[in-house]
Each structure stands twice: as structure tokens, then as C-alpha cells.
Design goal:
The complex is a heterotrimer.
Chain A: H1 6-29, H2 37-54, H3 57-63, H4 68-88, E1 98-103, E2 107-112, H5 113-138
Antiparallel strand pairs in A: 1-2
Helix pairs in contact in A: 1-2, 2-5, 4-5
Chain B: H1 2-20, H2 25-46, H3 67-98
Helix pairs in contact in B: 1-2, 2-3
Chain C: H1 3-24, H2 30-46, H3 49-53, E1 58-65, E2 70-76, H4 78-101, H5 109-128, H6 132-150, H7 157-188, H8 193-198, H9 200-204, H10 209-223, H11 232-235, H12 241-250, H13 254-267, H14 274-294, H15 300-323, H16 337-367, H17 383-397, H18 403-418, H19 426-429, H20 432-456, H21 474-492, H22 495-509, H23 528-545, H24 547-550, H25 563-585, H26 590-611, H27 627-645, H28 649-669, H29 673-696, H30 710-732, H31 740-746, H32 756-764, H33 766-788, H34 791-796
Antiparallel strand pairs in C: 1-2
Classes of the chains: A mainly alpha, B mainly alpha, C mainly alpha.
Transmembrane segments (chain C): 6-22, 29-49, 79-102, 109-127, 133-154, 166-188, 208-233, 245-268, 274-292, 304-328, 334-363, 375-399, 431-453, 474-493, 530-547, 593-610, 625-645, 652-670, 676-698, 710-731, 769-787
Organism (chain C): Fervidibacillus halotolerans
Membrane topology (chain C): Multi-pass membrane protein
């Protein structure tokens, strides 16, 4: 598929980063305000789909040079390892821990294993959505 | 409001069923989409509507709406997306291989059991 | 895990490495490696002999499914040890024989030995398990391995037929056995045989006693090829001869015998005599029927198969009649001789029948045929085989001095004493037992002679033989020679067995008796048994010499009325019948199936709601209706109607998107920001996806003409109504407090979050999410696979 719309292309260059930033914000906000891995992941995929619509698959592949299938596997792996990791500490499967740390520049920050799990969800969602869109787009 | 929602849900289910019973595979896929909308609203309605604030810890003890149906629906939304995508591609590939999207022509025959 | 458990499971473990051995060491016959295992096991089991003789059983238990009272309890007692020795001993000889029988260049040896080892382990499991569920598991394993071994030459139609037949019949029996086991469990609350034996009185007075007994007997009879289930055994002869010798004569078919023997202490006390009559009656009739039918067979292995059926019936009848002894108490041991004879004949049968099968295999191997109409005169060509066959057949016919004679004499003794039992009407019609036994023995004598002289006597018909006959190679003769020597040794010195093996086994079957020394003697004086034997020999010789004159009576039995015919007619008609039934409502149209599903959905849900008075409407505590909500409501309705009415696919898709956005706005109104966000983004991506698909789909990928269909509309309206009613009742009914409060209270402490929905997703109900992303991943890979893997093209290419 090929789209030569100059306005769309110029716009999406800017909008892409705004959406990505927003999706990262959504992802990290998730535990406290609406958002999380699902929405964040979907939003990121939305940004990339915008690129796909504005340019074509080959260009997007050049910009993001990795296989989205791998993202699914990585995401699942992170989630399962996070969930199963608790077994190593002799607590039931899926037990999360969290604590507050003082990190330079950021100040008091809470770190949560649930965020790791959510990261896995994020990756799977991005991976699946883009795998689907990409394979359909490539199958001319 | 709940009564209104119940009627809406019933309407969505009825339309979805009608679409699912049709011959065109695309209409069936749209039917599944409507069915999942109906199901999501049904789950939400079960938990009671507008019974409190947004389910975020507010610290002052204001009651919040039931967060559990929302969590379930969130899961369901994403799954139904995946399923719809799979159906679409199935229809698309089926058309490519078999040259039809008419369910009556896609009937399994006695020969290939 | 004890050594005993490892011994039982070792064949399974060994089976795993057999394919590797076969692959790596092709030049050496795989059988040589396999041979080690049964020999080691045989020696291992031999060491238990002194302990068991002292009456000390060995019990080792490993917990398997404790919640269901299923433990893998391995137990060695007299009966189990006897069978274990038979299984491993005959197993060793059979493996040795198979090394020469199966060519390493032409046969799939890896498969053969894997199946054989599976069988060996399963059979050991059957005879050494105390827990009935474990026993049942191994029991079915023997059926499976038998199935595979019968179908070993699966390119032959008859092999597949025989395999299927044996599978259907024995698995039917296995299922029935499971039913019996469960009934026993209901009665006693345990699966352990020892504990059941201790609770006999509860069992015999329980109303489920008779059903349990019948179920268990069905299992035993079908496995041991008793009338009317025997029909699978002759067809099982399609298996390679080592298998026939092992499974279908020496061991597997005796699993039923084992089961009956094992269950005797539980069921023999039956006050109505069902056990004695059923086991004894079916056994004695099978003895007669098997021997009678053996005579008309022309295939060597066919004769041996019917002979096995008949001999199994003999052992079964002895066990049945012997069980009657328990009603006379420890002081009256007159009737226990039947049980002793059963155990003794069990051993003897394994020896002489094993050797005969091996000889049949040798003849098949060296001449290319097993048809007695083409064989003859092999006596001088194959002298060693002839000698073995001579010993085997004479033992089978019950002619002194071989071991078969001894057990046949004891068999007559047991049957004659039946008449003296003054219970269960044995005093009036019990005389049938010795009469049928004698007739059966006459036929046994006749077919034994046919087997021997039609093969080895007379003239050689070289032109009818596919191969030039010659004596078998030395290795092939080892196993049958050993078995034949045992026939002779046991014949002359039966008492080397009596105290070491027979007595402990009988004590297991009849724990209520203190067995005195068992002495088996050759000469009883001029007793009725002796006259019976003499009669058998004289009448048998006469019948053999006049064979051509009386075999016409077999034509009196029409072929159409045999059990085999019944099986052959029943099975295909069952298939076509069920096919026809399914075709009446399975049309192949997906719409029909969906219509069924939705109709049942309506019917079941509305019936339940009506019968349980589940419909409930609470008008209080309803949320108020605002203007926005009404507008959204209308938007959804309009969108949906557009989809229904639209003829353009683009319109439908955009309308679907509109409905989706309206739903996400509903989420906003209903205080669900997470849902609203997600739905919004998903809807966007979905529409993009739909449109993308359209971009590539051919133009004529059309929507059907939207013709209104009344049936579909009725079903749809029904579904809608039912769902509306459910929706109304569901928010009006609160049967128990919601679990949500827990999540609400614990979101901040200890879960450390503020957004409850997200905390539920990643923390409280993380499992849901984990599986959800797995499903999503599968869907994604499914899409990828559908598009990338073009199976049809691969087929063409």
C-alpha cells in the first residue's frame, strides 16, 4: 500500500512522537490513574499504524527494524517470569512486591513488580496488533 | 437507566444473532462485534450503574463504582479485538483459497469427513 | 519408590531407550538387548520364592492420587509371584525366540520390542498391584499393547481386523471391570484388594454385590476369551507367532484367570452360589466349545487358538468349582483339589502351549504355510521340532508321563467331587460337570492328534509348500526345547513345584484354608479318574481314525448364526446407523448449527428462569436517566439498524465503528475511564483493520442481498428478549455480597496502587490477564500463520 499524501506524512512525523509519549505516560500512570499496559500498548500500536497509513510498510520496517512476532514472545516471557519469579522467594505464584525508593532527579518513586508484568502485557499487545496489521498489509 | 440499558443490550444481542445467522461471512463478523458490545454492556449493567465515583482510590471514603466488572470487560475488549482480527483473516484467506464468502457454499460435504 | 516399583516400571523405562538402541546399533538384533530385561526380572522375582513360601507377602506402597484413595501398592504374594515368574520367564524365552523369528533387516524391530516391553510392564503391573484402580490402568495397557502387536503387520487387512476386534471386545470388558471396581469401592470405601478381602462380609450382604460380581466377571471373561467373548482370540493369531505364544496363550489371556483367582476370596462366600455357577459353568462350556471347534480348523495357529480358548475354560471352571470349597470350612478340604489343579494346569498350559506355538511358528517360518491340508510328513525333515511337538501335544491330550496328564487327572478329580457338593443344587445337576469335562477332553485328545500327525505324519507334499522345508536354526529351537524339557521335568517331578509355587498361590486364592502339604502323585490306584483317562484315549483314537465320517456334523451349524457373524454384521450396521442418525440433523451449514445453539439457548434459559422463578425486577435504586444517555442509546440503535439494513460493506463497517464509539462514551458516563480509553483506541484500530482487509479484498466480496428471513428474525428476537430479562434480573438480584469490596479495600494497601481496575488486572486477578495475553498471542500467531503458511500451495508444490 502506498499513500503519497504529503500533509498526512508531515503531520504524522510530529503526531507520532506525541502519541508515543502519551502512550508511555499512560503506561506508567496505569497503577494510579486510568491507563496501563493495554491502553498504552494499543496507543503505541495506533501511532505505528498511523505511520503505516502515511508511508508504506517498507519505510516503517526501516524505521522500526525488528520483527513484531518477537515482541509477543518477549512480552509473554516477561509476564510469566514476573509471575513465576515469586516462586523463587517461596511465596505463591503471582505475588507482587513494591516499595518506595529515592532516585536522583526523579525523587521519591515507587517501584512495583506489577509494572514489570504490565510491561509484558504492553509488549504482547503491541506485538499482536502490529503482527496482525503487518501481515495483512504484506499479503498483497 | 438500568432498564434502558437492558433493552439496549437485548437489542444488540438480537441484531447480533440475526447477523450471525446470515449467509455472508462479513455480516457474521460484524455480528460478533455487536455481540461483544452487548456482552460488555451486560457485564457492566450487572454490577450496577453510576453507584459511586470513578474506581480510583480517593482517600476520603467516597463510595466508588464496582471495579471488578470493569476489569473483566477490559480483558474482554482486548480479546474480542484479537478474535475479530482472526475471523477477518480467516474470511479473507478463505475467500482467496475457495473463492467464496457465502457460508452456504462453504458447507462441509459428505465426501470429506 | 521401592525396588519392586522400579522393577514393575522398568519395562516402560526400557521401552523409551529401545528406539535409540535400534537406531544406533542396527547391525545387532535389538532383541539381544531387550532379552536382558526379562531375564534380570525373572532372577529378581525368583529371590522372593523362599519368603513367599513362608507366607510373608511383600507390600510396598507409593502414594499416587491420595485424594481418591489411589495408591500404587505393589504386593508380592503366592499368586502374584507365580504370574510374575510366568510373565518374565516365558517373556525371556519369547524374546529369545523372536530374535530368530523376526529378521532384523525386514521388520520394524523398534516398534515390536517397544510394544512387547509395554506389555511386559503392564502385565507385571496387573498381577502385582493391590490397588484396583492401578490394576485397571495396567489392565487397559495390556489391551493396548495387544492391539498394537496384533496389528503389527498393519499392511495386512486381517491383522487390522483382528486388532480392532480384540480391542473392541477387551476394552468393553475393561470398561465393565472399571464399573465393577467402582461398585466395590462404593461398598467398601477402598480400592485395596487386601482390605476388601478383610471386608468380605460387608460386600456379600450388600445389594450391589451381584452387579459388581457380574461386571467384574465380564471383564475377566472377555480378557480370558471365555464364551461368548472368545471370538477375538482366533483372529488375534494374525500377530507374529512369538506374540501369540506370549500374549495370546501364556500370559495376557490369563489376566482374566488371575482376576477371577484374585477375587475368589471376596466373592466365593456368595450364599446363592452365583459365583460358583457362573465361573464354573461358563468355564466348562468354554472348554467344550473351544475343543469342539478346534477340530474343524485347518490353520495350525487356528487350532492352537481354539485349544487355548478351551484350556482357559478348563482353568476357569476349576477356579469356579474350587470356590465352592469355602462353604465347607477348613475341616473339609475335599473340594480344594480343584483350585490346586487350576494353579497347576496354569503352569502346565504355559509350558506345553508355549512350546506348541513356537513349533507352529517354526513350521510357518520354514515351510511358508500353516495349513494342515498342505503340511505332512515333516517328521523326518524336522526331527527336533517333531519331538517338541510330540511332547507338547501329548501333554495337552493328557497322556502320561507328561505334566498335562497330571493336571488332567486332578481336573477329573475336581469335577467328580463336584457331584458330592450338597449345595447350590450341585447334587442334582452337578453331574453335568464331569460329563462335559470328559467330552471336552475327548475332543482335546482328537485335536491334539490332528495337530501332531497332520503336520508331521504321512507324506510330504512338497509341491504344495511355498518353501523347501528344513529343520529350524539352532537359536530358534532353544526356547521351545527349554519349554518341552519343562513339560517332561514337571511331568516326572511335579512336586518341585507343589510346595514352592502351587501351595503359596492356592493359599492366596483360598486364604481361609490352612493348606497342608500338597503332594501330586502319578498313581492314584484304580480310581474313576483313571478309567476316565483310559476312556478318553480309546474313544479319542477311534474318533481320530474315523475323522472323515463324523466331521460332517460341523455343517449342521449354519455359518450365519455364529458369534463371529453377529460381530461382523453388528459393527458395520452400528457405523452406518449412527452415520444416518447424524446426517438427519447435521446438515453441514454453519447457520443450522448456530440456529440449534441459539434455540437451545432460548429454551434452556427461559425454562430455567420460569421454573426457578428467577425473574426479578427491582424498581428502587435505579440510576437516573440523563439526556446524554438517551442520545447515546439512540446512537447505538441507529448504528445497529444501519448495519442491519445496509447493503454496502463500507457503510456497515463505519456503522459498526460508530456503535463502538457510542459504547465507549457509555463507559465514560458509567464512570469507567479505563474502559472508555481502551474501547476508543481499539475501535480505531479495528476500523483500520477492517478497512485494511477491504483494501485487499476483491471487489465482489459482497454482502448478501438483505432479504428478510422470518425464522432467523424470530430466533434473534427470542435471544434478545431472553437477554433483556436476564439483564433486568441480574442487577435486581443480589444473592450474596459482591467480592468487589475486597478489591476496593485492598487496592492501596497492600497492593500499592490507586487505579483499582488496573490493580485488579495486574495484581489481584493477574492470572486472567496472563491467560488473556496468551490468547491474544495465539490469535496474533494464528493470523500470521493463516497468511504466511499457504498450505494449499505447499501441497501443489
Amino acid at each position: 500500500m502506498r499513500s503519497g499524501d504529503l500533509i498526512l506524512q508531515t503531520m504524522s512525523k510530529v503526531v507520532f512522537f506525541i502519541i508515543i509519549l502519551f502512550s508511555i505516560h499512560l503506561f506508567f500512570e496505569g497503577h494510579y490513574r486510568p491507563g496501563g499496559g493495554f491502553v498504552g500498548g494499543l496507543m503505541t500500536s495506533g501511532a505505528i499504524i498511523l505511520l503505516l497509513l502515511a508511508y508504506d510498510i517498507k519505510t516503517v520496517k526501516k524505521i522500526i527494524p525488528f520483527d513484531f512476532k518477537w515482541l509477543i514472545a518477549v512480552g509473554l516471557f516477561i509476564s510469566v517470569v514476573t509471575a513465576g519469579g515469586s516462586l523463587l522467594f517461596n511465596v505463591p505464584f503471582f505475588t507482587h512486591v513494591h516499595d518506595y525508593f529515592n532516585i536522583p532527579l526523579l525523587g521519591k518513586t515507587s517501584l512495583h513488580t506489577a509494572a514489570l508484568f504490565d510491561l509484558g502485557v504492553f509488549f504482547v499487545v503491541v506485538g499482536v496488533t502490529l503482527t496482525i496489521i503487518q501481515t495483512i498489509g504484506e499479503s498483497e | 437507566m438500568e432498564l434502558l440499558m437492558a433493552i439496549l443490550i437485548g437489542f444488540l444481542f438480537a441484531s447480533a444473532t440475526y447477523l450471525l445467522l446470515s449467509k455472508s461471512i462479513l455480516r457474521m463478523i460484524i455480528g460478533t462485534g455487536l455481540l461483544s458490545h452487548g456482552a460488555h454492556l451486560l457485564i457492566l449493567t450487572m454490577g450496577g450503574l453510576k453507584k459511586g465515583a470513578v474506581p480510583i482510590v480517593n482517600g476520603d471514603g467516597t463510595p466508588v463504582t464496582d471495579p471488578l466488572p470493569q476489569a473483566l470487560i477490559l480483558t474482554a475488549i482486548v480479546i474480542s479485538f484479537g478474535v475479530t482480527a482472526l475471523f477477518l483473516v480467516l474470511a479473507y484467506r478463505g475467500y482467496q483459497e475457495l473463492g467464496t464468502d457465502n457460508m452456504d457454499e462453504l458447507r462441509g460435504t459428505d465426501g470429506n469427513e | 519408590m521401592s525396588v519392586l516399583h522400579i522393577a514393575i516400571l522398568s519395562p516402560f523405562l526400557f521401552a523409551i531407550i529401545v528406539p535409540y538402541i535400534y537406531k544406533r546399533l542396527r547391525q545387532i538384533h535389538t532383541g539381544w538387548f531387550v532379552l536382558l530385561l526379562p531375564i534380570i526380572l525373572f532372577i529378581y522375582f525368583l529371590q522372593f520364592l523362599p519368603q513367599v513360601k513362608e507366607g510373608e507377602g511383600i507390600v510396598q506402597s507409593v502414594s499416587w492420587i491420595p485424594s481418591l484413595n489411589v495408591d500404587f501398592t505393589a504386593k508380592i504374594d503366592g499368586l502374584g509371584l507365580l504370574f510374575a515368574l510366568l510373565i518374565t520367564g516365558i517373556g525371556s524365552l519369547v524374546v529369545l525366540y523372536s530374535i530368530y523369528y523376526l529378521s532384523k533387516d525386514q521388520e520394524q524391530l523398534n516398534a515390536f520390542y517397544v510394544y512387547l516391553l509395554l506389555f511386559l510392564g503392564a502385565m507385571l503391573g496387573v498381577v502385582l498391584s493391590d490397588n484396583l484402580i492401578v490394576l485397571y490402568t495396567f489392565w487397559e495397557f495390556t489391551s493396548f499393547s495387544s492391539f498394537f502387536l496384533i496389528g503389527y503387520w498393519h499392511h495386512r487387512e486381517r491383522s487390522r481386523y483382528g486388532a480392532q476386534k480384540s480391542m473392541l471386545i477387551t476394552v468393553f470388558g475393561g470398561l465393565s471391570l472399571l464399573g465393577g471396581i467402582i461398585l466395590l469401592y462404593i461398598m467398601t470405601g477402598t480400592f485395596s484388594i487386601q482390605e476388601m478381602v478383610a471386608n468380605t462380609s460387608t460386600i456379600i450382604n450388600h445389594p450391589l454385590f451381584l452387579p459388581a460380581m457380574i461386571f467384574i466377571l465380564l471383564g475377566a471373561f472377555s480378557k480370558s476369551a471365555q464364551f461368548p467373548f472368545y471370538i477375538w482370540l482366533p483372529d488375534a493369531m494374525e500377530a507374529p507367532t512369538p506374540v501369540s505364544a506370549y500374549l495370546h496363550s501364556a500370559t495376557m489371556v490369563k489376566a482374566g484367570i488371575y482376576l477371577v483367582a484374585r477375587m475368589t476370596p471376596i466373592f466365593a462366600y456368595d450364599a446363592n452360589g452365583y459365583w460358583v455357577w457362573l465361573v464354573g459353568g461358563v468355564g466348562i462350556f468354554t472348554l467344550f466349545w473351544g475343543s469342539f471347534n478346534a477340530i474343524k480348523q485347518t490353520d495350525l495357529k487356528g487350532i492352537l487358538a481354539y485349544s487355548t480358548v478351551s484350556q482357559l475354560g478348563l482353568i476357569m471352571s476349576l477356579l469356579g468349582v474350587g470356590a465352592g470349597a469355602v462353604h465347607f470350612g477348613n475341616d473339609n478340604q475335599l473340594f480344594i483339589v480343584a483350585t490346586i489343579a487350576a494353579v497347576f494346569h496354569l503352569i502346565n498350559h504355559a509350558t506345553f502351549k508355549g512350546s506348541l506355538f513356537m513349533v507352529a511358528g517354526i513350521i510357518d517360518h520354514e515351510t511358508g504355510t500353516r495349513d494342515i491340508r498342505r503340511l505332512g510328513g515333516l517328521m523326518t525333515i524336522m526331527p527336533v521340532s517333531f519331538t517338541i511337538a510330540f511332547i507338547g501335544t501329548f501333554s495337552m491330550a493328557g497322556i502320561p508321563p507328561f505334566n498335562g496328564f497330571l493336571s488332567k487327572e486332578m481336573f477329573f478329580t475336581g469335577m467328580l467331587r463336584v457331584v458330592k457338593m450338597d449345595i447350590f443344587r450341585f447334587d442334582s445337576i452337578g453331574f453335568l460337570f464331569p460329563v462335559i469335562a470328559w467330552i471336552g477332553s475327548v475332543f482335546t485328545f482328537v485335536y491334539s492328534m490332528i495337530l501332531l500327525w497332520k503336520t508331521f505324519g504321512g507324506q510330504v507334499q512338497r509341491e504344495k509348500l511355498p518353501k523347501t522345508p528344513h529343520e529350524a536354526p539352532f537359536g530358534m529351537l532353544i526356547s521351545p526345547v527349554i519349554l518341552a524339557s519343562l513339560v517332561v521335568i514337571f511331568g516326572f517331578f511335579p512336586n518341585i513345584l507343589s510346595d514352592r509355587i502351587i501351595a503359596p498361590a492356592v493359599e492366596t486364592i483360598m486364604p481361609m484354608f490352612a493348606i497342608d502339604e500338597i503332594h501330586i502323585s502319578h498313581w492314584h490306584g484304580f480310581q474313576p479318574e483313571l478309567y476316565m483317562t483310559i476312556g478318553v484315549i480309546i474313544i479319542g483314537i477311534l474318533l481320530y481314525l474315523t475323522l472323515g465320517k463324523w466331521t460332517r456334523i460341523y455343517q449342521l451349524f449354519p455359518n450365519k448364526l455364529t458369534l463371529n457373524q453377529l460381530y461382523d454384521v453388528l459393527l458395520p450396521s452400528l457405523e452406518t446407523g449412527s452415520n444416518m442418525f447424524i446426517r438427519t440433523h447435521m446438515t453441514g451449514y454453519i447457520r443450522t448449527y448456530l440456529a440449534y445453539i441459539f434455540t437451545f439457548f432460548i429454551a434452556i434459559l427461559s425454562f430455567t428462569m420460569w421454573s426457578k422463578h428467577a425473574f426479578h425486577f427491582e424498581s428502587t435504586n435505579l440510576a437516573d436517566i440523563g439526556l446524554y444517555e438517551v442520545l447515546l442509546f439512540l446512537a447505538v440503535i441507529i448504528g445497529t439498524v444501519t448495519i442491519l439494513a445496509s447493503k454496502s460493506r463500507l457503510t456497515s463497517i463505519i456503522a459498526l465503528g460508530a456503535v463502538g464509539y457510542a459504547v465507549s462514551l457509555f463507559f465514560v458516563l458509567f464512570r469507567a475511564p479505563d474502559l472508555a480509553l481502551t474501547q476508543l483506541v481499539i475501535e480505531t484500530i479495528s476500523v483500520a483493520l477492517f478497512l485494511l482487509c477491504f483494501y485487499f479484498l476483491p471487489r465482489n466480496f459482497h454482502l448478501e442481498k438483505t432479504r428478510f428471513k422470518l425464522t432467523n428474525a424470530l430466533i434473534s428476537v427470542g435471544v434478545g428478549l431472553v437477554v433483556t430479562l436476564i439483564a433486568i434480573s441480574s442487577y435486581s438480584t443480589k444473592l450474596f455480597p459482591s467480592i468487589s469490596q475486597y478489591y476496593v479495600d485492598h487496592t492501596y494497601d497492600p497492593a500499592g496502587g490507586e487505579n483499582m481496575v488496573n490493580v485488579i488486572l495486574v495484581d489481584f486477578r493477574g492470572f486472567d490477564t496472563l491467560f488473556e495475553i496468551s490468547v491474544l498471542a495465539i490469535a496474533g500467531l494464528g493470523v500470521y500463520g493463516l497468511i504466511k503458511l499457504r498450505l494449499a500451495r505447499r501441497k501443489e508444490g
